[in-house]
Design goal:
InterPro entries: AsnASE_II, Asp/glu_Ase-like_sf, Asparaginase/glutaminase-like, Asparaginase/glutaminase_AS1, Asparaginase/glutaminase_AS2, Asparaginase_C, L-asparaginase_C, L-asparaginase_N
Number of domains: 2
CATH architecture of the largest domain: 3-Layer(aba) Sandwich
Bound molecules: glutamic acid
Protein name: Probable L-asparaginase
GO biological process, one term: asparagine metabolic process
Strand content: 15-25%
Organism: Helicobacter brantae
Keywords: Hydrolase
């Protein structure tokens, strides 16, 4: 752990670094190729204006992981979440900022949303350009995250993500561009708010259950149930479903076409999987908007669940946590989709 700034009575914001492009480095400041997760958090913090940071927060930092987020695993989520919960219990820490690769930041955000137990702000942040880039976006995003985390307005809002001046809820965030710096959009209703002139402006609240209202406890969990995401398309075969079952999946999230639909062959395989005890959740390859029950598929008859407003990747996390909590009844799992 490294102490960076001591600003007396300012909130203590603890920065947990995990790697990603925000910690990326390249030999060229203009080329698009680079290595993610190369620069340590203490160096990244040197790019921030110390006197400006000191107006908002006292910083402490820790390098908890150093990876591109495409290499993060559910064990890493458990590691991060347990460390965050430990820090949140410390009365000397007011808020947490997590620097993270953008590829799977939405998954870590959702996992933390459902497994951290505090009203204290937890803010995830990343960057699309490496730290060595001309016009790197990391320092400004990180500065915004520190200001957001230090604000009393952020308390009780659940896990947040700030990116390119926007504030998003972890319940409703999806990566929306593989390359552009405005890389995150809400999958449903809208941004929670905006950062402007070093102030968060919140426009709405998140009414989904999260953090202190979440029933999920991973403090004694060392591994999570295997849940696979499969993707639908015209002419998709049953093979992927059969392989997932054969390989030990306890759940399948099927990102179907349109309103979570699949062809007859896939449906037959999913029914068979469901009858064998594998939990099947219908969701959609369309990221935006809900996949509700009571469409073209008789979910109740087959024991299927639908994701409603969750992306396939968020759905997978809810299913993993539900199964980990011993919930196997489809109706109960359906209730989880609706309340988180
Ligand atoms: N693939 C890397 C990661 O997710 C870099 C992408 C990024 O952070 O923007 O960590």
């Amino acid at each position: 752990m490294a102490s960076f700034l001591s600003a007396g009575d300012k909130p203590v914001v603890y920065i947990l670094a995990t790697g990603g492009t925000i910690a990326g480095a390249s030999s060229s400041s203009t080329a698009s190729s680079y290595d993610a997760g190369k620069v340590l958090i203490e160096t990244i913090l040197q790019a921030l204006p110390k006197d400006e940071v000191a107006k908002y927060a006292t910083l402490k930092s820790e390098q908890v992981l150093q990876k591109g987020s495409q290499n993060l695993t559910p064990s890493d989520w458990l590691k991060i979440s347990k460390r965050v919960n430990e820090l949140l219990k410390d009365k000397n820490i007011d808020a947490i900022v997590i620097t993270h690769g953008t590829d799977t930041i939405e998954e870590s955000a959702m996992f933390l949303q459902l497994t951290t137990k505090s009203d204290k702000p937890v803010v995830l942040v990343g960057a699309m350009r490496p730290s060595t880039s001309l016009s790197a976006d990391g320092p400004k995003n990180l500065f915004d995250a520190i200001v957001l985390a230090s604000s009393p307005l952020s308390k009780g809002k659940g896990v947040l993500l700030t990116f390119n001046g926007n504030i998003l809820s972890a319940s409703d965030v999806t990566k929306s561009s593989p390359v552009h710096i405005d890389a995150f959009k809400p999958a449903n209703i809208g941004y929670l708010g905006y950062m402007w002139n070093n102030t968060p402006y919140f426009l709405r609240d998140n009414l989904q259950r999260h953090t202190t209202q979440s029933q999920f406890d991973i403090s004694n969990t060392s591994s999570l149930p295997q849940v696979e995401i499969l993707y639908g398309y015209a002419g998709s075969s049953a093979k992927a479903v059969e392989d997932a079952v054969k390989n030990g999946a306890k759940g399948i999230v099927y990102a179907g076409v349109g309103n979570g639909n699949f062809n007859d062959e896939v449906q037959k395989a999913l029914i068979k999987a469901s009858q064998s005890g594998v939990k099947v959740v219908r969701t959609s390859r369309i990221i935006y908007g809900p996949t509700p029950q009571w469409g073209e598929v008789d979910d109740e008859k087959y024991g299927f669940i639908t994701s409603w407003w969750h992306t396939p990747q968020a759905t997978r996390i809810i299913l993993m946590l539900g199964l980990n909590a011993g919930i196997t009844d489809s109706k109960e799992l359906q209730k989880l989709m609706l309340s988180y």
